[in-house]
Structures are given as structure tokens and as C-alpha cells.
Amino acid sequence: MQKQTISQAELNESQAARLAELFRAMSDASRVLIIAALLDGPLNVQSLAQVAGISESGASHHLRSLRQMRVVSARRQGQRVYYSIHDEHIADLFRRGVEHILHG
Questions:
Q1: Rg for the chain (alpha carbons), in Å?
Q2: Chain Cα centroid distance, residue 42
Q3: DSSP class of 104
Q4: What does the DSSP 8-state code read for residue 1?
Q5: Alpha-carbon span 76 to 45, nearest angstrom
């Protein structure tokens, strides 16, 4: 499979806005901790709140934003909702960001 690249000239205003929104999703330390925890697998709100050191309502608020930006997905199992990383593109982008800050 050939890797698709995009040049600055090919990026339209709508795509640029969506990319900025994606990076904005990762601009909060609590959301970063939530995403990092989800790299290991699905978790519920209570677990994610504990990992991020925030209230469950705070975690729910962040998760709502992350769902809207298609960073995380939700799956109901009985009374609980479990969240996971939306797709491997998000996980790869996040891991690359971590590598970048750890590198230098």
C-alpha cells in the first residue's frame, strides 16, 4: 500500500480547520492522559477519571469532546460505556507526538 502524502497546496481550508481541531483535542493535559490510557485498551469513565486525576463529570465532558472530534469511540456494555481510540491513525499520531517530546 502506497503512503499518501499531502502538500500544503493540496490542503484546503476545510481540511486545515479539521486538522487544527484534531490537534486542539490534544491540547489539554487531562485529554492527553485519557488518550494515553486508552492506548492500552478500552476503559470506562470511572477508570479514565481516576487515571486523569479528574472527576467523572470532568472525564465525561472531555470524552464528549473527543468523541465529537472522532478521537475516541464509545461502546455500551450493560450499564457502562467503554471508550477506545477511534482508529490506528489517532494512536499513531499520539505515539509520534510522545516520541517527539521524549526525543529532545
A1: 15
A2: 13
A3: -
A4: -
A5: 12
Q: What is the DSSP string of 4-73?
A: P---GGG--HHHHHHHHHHHHHTSSHHHHHHHHHHTTS-EEHHHHHHHHTS-HHHHHHHHHHHHHTTSEE
Query: DSSP labels for 73-98?
Result: EEEEETTEEEEEES-HHHHHHHHHHH
Q: CA 18, CA 58: separation in Å to the nearest integer?
A: 24
pTM of the complete model: 0.86
Q: Distance between CA atoms of 104 and 100, rounded to whole angstroms?
A: 7
- Domain edges within the chain: 46-104
Task: Dig out the grid coordinates for 64 from the structure.
Answer: 464528549
pLDDT in tens, 57-79: 999 999 999 999 999 999 999 99
The CATH class, in words, for 46-104 is mainly alpha
